Structures
1.
Amino acid sequence: MSDEVLRWAPDADGDPALLTYTFGGAAPVATLRPGQVLSTWTLDCFGGRITSVDQLVSEVADPRYLNPQTGPFWVEGAAPGDTLAVHFLSVEPRYARGVSSTVPFFGALTATPRTAMLHPALPERTWVYELDLQERLVRYAARDTDFTAALPLDPMHGTVGVAPPLGEVRSSLTPGSWGGNMDTPEMRAGATCYLGVNVEGALLSLGDGHARQGEGETCGVAVETAMDTTLVVELVKGAPTAWPRIEDDAHLMTTGSSRPLEDAFRIAHQQMVLWVAELTGMSELDSYQFVTQVALTPVANVVDTDYTVVCKVPKRFLGDLDGTRGAYGGVHARLRSRG
Amino acid sequence: MSDEVLRWAPDADGDPALLTYTFGGAAPVATLRPGQVLSTWTLDCFGGRITSVDQLVSEVADPRYLNPQTGPFWVEGAAPGDTLAVHFLSVEPRYARGVSSTVPFFGALTATPRTAMLHPALPERTWVYELDLQERLVRYAARDTDFTAALPLDPMHGTVGVAPPLGEVRSSLTPGSWGGNMDTPEMRAGATCYLGVNVEGALLSLGDGHARQGEGETCGVAVETAMDTTLVVELVKGAPTAWPRIEDDAHLMTTGSSRPLEDAFRIAHQQMVLWVAELTGMSELDSYQFVTQVALTPVANVVDTDYTVVCKVPKRFLGDLDGTRGAYGGVHARLRSRG
Amino acid sequence: MSDEVLRWAPDADGDPALLTYTFGGAAPVATLRPGQVLSTWTLDCFGGRITSVDQLVSEVADPRYLNPQTGPFWVEGAAPGDTLAVHFLSVEPRYARGVSSTVPFFGALTATPRTAMLHPALPERTWVYELDLQERLVRYAARDTDFTAALPLDPMHGTVGVAPPLGEVRSSLTPGSWGGNMDTPEMRAGATCYLGVNVEGALLSLGDGHARQGEGETCGVAVETAMDTTLVVELVKGAPTAWPRIEDDAHLMTTGSSRPLEDAFRIAHQQMVLWVAELTGMSELDSYQFVTQVALTPVANVVDTDYTVVCKVPKRFLGDLDGTRGAYGGVHARLRSRG
Amino acid sequence: MSDEVLRWAPDADGDPALLTYTFGGAAPVATLRPGQVLSTWTLDCFGGRITSVDQLVSEVADPRYLNPQTGPFWVEGAAPGDTLAVHFLSVEPRYARGVSSTVPFFGALTATPRTAMLHPALPERTWVYELDLQERLVRYAARDTDFTAALPLDPMHGTVGVAPPLGEVRSSLTPGSWGGNMDTPEMRAGATCYLGVNVEGALLSLGDGHARQGEGETCGVAVETAMDTTLVVELVKGAPTAWPRIEDDAHLMTTGSSRPLEDAFRIAHQQMVLWVAELTGMSELDSYQFVTQVALTPVANVVDTDYTVVCKVPKRFLGDLDGTRGAYGGVHARLRSRG
């Protein structure tokens, strides 16, 4: 363990081509030791180029440079077959502004390049949100009427992941077994994300901060914002993780990312059945029955190139998971105590 | 309005062939007037034939007689183009026992007749749950180990619906635009369900009581139980409803039932975008943006012949919806006051 | 066997509400004996109401009265668990005109009520085709330019089916295990369709004649035409058929209808693996391997409420299927000899 | 144009880790000039490691080294926005043996890592096929019975593609907009494949030879064989191609690869509607109608990580496409004349 904090910042003012837009395929920017705290920040998904309602994504944002990631960080000692635990100590909007938009042929209620149709695109429009960091509110204002609403601030990262397996390099717009653009609001401060390591050093990256989002992220764009983030990593050696998992104080969570959406559901719930069986000693069939009666199943996104479903099980139903009886030997509780 | 209560009970001891297993296609059993309270009960989805862990569904339950419905009730004055509001005053397990099971080729994590494969069926097994109606608990006991868990009682109806459009008659195992087997835990006491009327008299039926279920109802069978239910109906004349909606004190909810699951998501969220626009006066595009940031999206079921997704929006974000400014002219608040 | 021909005609000039629009739920119009020839005709899917390019479906056709079926016919002796063999002796356009159209929110390349989006409908338009019954051609003429094309006439029925199981009544717009609106061009003269019987009398109906269609029926509407049809039925007692199958002189064919489309594929190919194993004596695993290398897999439709895939296996690869060694005891060859 | 032939061979006897298993992410092995003929060969998808029915894929084949590709070849002058035309002059099995197998959790009729379930894997088994290159036959022999069948030899490449866009590197097991593992039998000698260029030099690779396969490649493994292949490439400058297209003497073909399978259908058919409109001058709506009546729609694969559908339109229906009026300025006819 190390108490030294690694401070690292992306070069937001430099050539956008030099930022990181993939999981895998990029050289590490720095090295993190297990137990070490990382203090960094992430650009918003548009690289900060949208600042007013008069700007449109298709005019301002280069499609090659969407969703820049901070990283990748080489995690000392990480090897294929390990699990990387990433605990978010703090996730806070860097500025008092969030932006959102409709993007042509992107979103759940429009034709897309993969759900290809003959419709013209829906209208493109930008919304700017005031973030009230004192009151912890996100202020929505309609564009066509004077409707307004004050929504709870709930900062999170849409994207966190490692290098994929099989030598693949995947766009930061895509979620998968390596993590990536899962867009679940569960990736907030206080949560620990478990990612299976596929390559030496793991190559952790993160980005896509949201001041808040609805489940499903219907139009494809949340309240996007640059984010100041502090996290601490830990390694669980020799413990593979097939699909990203999340743990907070109240829940165990599994994720699945695929299409159709029922396959994302299947992955998340199969993983939860196996995980609950492992932690409680129940048989697989008993665990299947148990998960059927206790799971919460929020959709994470139905807009990225693959869709994500989260399965949540309250830890209080699982009996005594204290200390090393907890998931991955109790790493969440240990990292939580650092916060 | 009428204060008279209609009491009606299914003939649980008679010929199971005489019970109701479809939406549409059955003669009404009684007439309900708008404003009238109905006090009734519903058999569990196995018609009460499973009472011990030694019984298997495939041996005890005739596949023609699964999921019997109480009804249909003819609603006086209901005509195509109206909306039927069904408010649940009370939903209480009739006995202190619930049952569940795995059923061959049924469930989310198994091959099924539609997701057809070459695997043999998963093992069939029955679980019996003690329902502690005082402590409001559902007691789970593993079959293969001594693991137990006490889960919150949360009684609900898996199935509520009316006769479908286009002259169709649909099995009570299926959800759709007429309601049916949506299997969402939101269908609990205190909720109002809005169903579009397709035929004269609407032909309301309900059943499939669950002492509780997880979202998604992963193995396809919740904690099944007979249910004592009191409800009150109201008619909203000339207000069509394309897909079932639910309102409780805190949320507006839309549902979609289809396959693949992303189409169920699309239906529910398109309907919510339209509903929020109508109630707030926002433009469709502003509503799309707003719903993107506020929707909760629990999966209801991924096991019936079509899958169901629920979209929930907190009413407190929508401004002043008091009195007749509320959904369907404020019918939920009025019916709620009857409880 | 009977040599007597049953001649029956729908009342095309009467009240359209009196025609048949469902599988199940309609009283039989006549009785057919096994071995008996039926000579009849079917209205086109618009009930004959579109006769010029100036008419639009949404203006002329009542949505309750789309896709009228001829029938249902009570088949003497048919009982649940039997298979009804329907052999098409002749399928010929009744008039020298076919029509097609785009229909708002219907088709594979548009948002639909189930793939719900926020797009306005694609433009609605009607095309009229000249059918040259001598030259066996279908003459296409573009509406916006002078492009024309002469396509081979290939008459077929989009819809053929029996009453569904579980007491269901299904719209004639929908395909399923009972047959219905499968929209495969394989349902042409010379083919035998095998349908599992679900109710006494089977209740056979047919309709939706197409002068020709592409596979997938992309925009949802083929070259629609009234059809003069002669067929002969046979019963295979005690031989259930889970999903519709088709046999012609060259191929065995299975169908699956579901969503997503891969589930329709799975059904058709699982059924073919089982059928080939049964006919050849191969093990299921050997049959799986064999079907992998020989199957042809045309998509039938991706536009109806469920989608249909056909799996075809050339009979010449299956060894000696002569006489009673053939499928269903060689019924196709026997009925074919009637033609 | 160049008459010089580039001869290049993979190092089949070296370290399998040094072969190419991705599209993108590998250094070019040689340079091809437009108009130049390439004479090469490709290993089978198991790298030649399966030679008898006693070998199982899971025991013999390293999952990191499946589906090795020959290439990538740098195509001189190729730049993003161009189209690379790859015309197959000759595709011939290199040996007289093909192999196939079932692979645990891989295939259309089994649970997979993405259609995740709780079933154990189907049995793993290997089949060896004799290829009779004189009689042009592929000889199937059942493992469990003495059933045999002689099937037509129809050699093809399951995999051909270029580097993907957005800096991605994709496994050779996956199909997509860059080509890759489409597994369509249309990729045979005499066909021209059109691939949109995403990076300088295009980086063409190919592999996965099949002596034949059924459409859909149901169990996931065709009659796999090393292949001697001769091809010629051409560049169409400034003509982007969104998804791979194929042309042979009789048909124009478009492909789409996605999940669910209906999205693969949608891509292929939207692309065909646009292509036919461009070549004939028809409006998009007229082309939509026309494609509806003429398209053939074979499924290519339902087994890889994404699924592929092909849309075929007979060229004879499209009017005069001779000379430069043909697709991409008539490049297929010109390359065909080299054969």
2.
Amino acid sequence: MYGLITHLTAHPGRRDELGLCLLDPNVKRPGCHSYVVAHDLDDADADALWVTEVWMSKAAHDAWSADIRESGVMRSALALIATWGDTVFTRPIGGVGL
Amino acid sequence: MYGLITHLTAHPGRRDELGLCLLDPNVKRPGCHSYVVAHDLDDADADALWVTEVWMSKAAHDAWSADIRESGVMRSALALIATWGDTVFTRPIGGVGL
């Protein structure tokens, strides 16, 4: 498996809109076991989102990335992102809900 | 929902053992929607684990924490942890696999 933990900052006041765009049910993620979008608890950082992902493999994730770049289906979401924090890349070994 | 993203460091060389302890199927997590244990990809940090969690509520998580403290069921896991990095507390809004 292949995992990513990413801290995103939306343009001021646009976090909720960005969250909904990332969760657009029209965006399919084949090979994705888990994809969670979260706000900072208590809105300590009011424009931040945390995205945690588990994919079947890096290849599945990379194929999806290439696909969305080509289709432009996430263009509206990408336009709402002010900064991408450093992504942590992981190798999930197991757990609940996978 | 209530989420946690935690960076743990095991005592040197004990990471794999710690990962297995955290995934012990005898440890039940009522109200836990997602619990993922991951290594650093490419073992850049060879003793590190990332634990990402989504619970039904903070109350469900806190009840579980109190329960494991009382039962001692995770004592062996806790003994393998050298340091706890800062935990990020989140409010998950949705996603795949919840």
